[in-house]
Give the backbone structure.
Amino acid sequence: MPPFMLLAVVGVAGVAGYRLLSALARQGQAVRKEEARMRRAAAPTRDLGNLEWDEAAGVYRPHAKRDV
């Protein structure tokens, strides 16, 4: 009987360890995703210079450089 109890204890400990490690892995993945999102949000923006309204498209576009 004691070997079966030992086997049961080892099995329960193995399942608990697996669940703990998988939960930690999911948490680490979520942290890495959040860090990547924060890095993208903090990225410097491009300076487009002066903008002009494009009636046809209905958006602002960078001012076209015209040769005079």
